[in-house]
Design goal:
- There is one protein chain.
- By secondary structure, this protein is mainly α.
- It has one domain (13-252).
- Helix content is 76%, strand content 0%.
- The protein contains eight helices and no strands.
- It has helices at 13-26, 28-48, 57-89, 96-124, 140-162, 168-183, 189-215, 221-252.
- The radius of gyration is 18 Å and the shape is globular.
Length: 258
Amino acid sequence: MNRADDERLPPSIGGLVDFAVAAYAERAVLYIGLAVAVFLIQGAVEAAIPAAKLDTPQGALKLLVLEYTALFVDAYVIAAVALGVGMRAAAEPVSSGRIAGTAAQRWLPVLVTSVLAQTVAFWTGPFSGFGALPDPAAILLFTAPFVWLVWGVLGLAQPITALSGERPAFAVIAGVTRAVAWSLRSSNFRRLSLVAFVTIVPNLLQTVAYDVMLHQHVARPLFWAYVPIDALTVGPVAALQAAFALDFARRAGDQRSA
């Protein structure tokens, strides 16, 4: 990952948010099309697997299939959006077709990074405040903010991996290690906190939506609570993560091709 041009990438937090929004809007047709594809693919999987209660083996299997389907399709969206942000920062005039083609090449390492992030999220989930409360629940006051920051770091790792110029296996290592190294800089704490907050917003919306749909007895509540929100948010969140990843690289003075 080369440092972005200082004039193209704003130095302020607000400027970076504006930059991410502009980069997403610049390729809105491509990214909205990908969002529709994410919804349709997950909808096809939902329709193909018989409905089952979550507390049954069939329900657990279906949930696992849906989660990994989301990871597979979201990884491509993250790669495409991150590349679009990176090319805008570098002032490279490229077509949406080239972004889509390059994203296909970067899809596998981003997917591996996403699986690693999902694994960490699974094990740290009980201490995040999402889902069943631990005993004592007060422990969340200490654990939840830390877990959210970890999720923010792993959220940065995915666009860093996408923007890497290294071979797939090394790109995954570079994405994770650089995300951790840059995030540990005290000067980046406020920016990391913003990224972490944005990263957990989809989870928060999905949790609330699922609870509402259960109480309203909506058919297929898991699908309708999680998939539309995932499809709508994965691209914009990736754009912001990519913009801040480029900023972290610049602030670290990293001249390497990541």
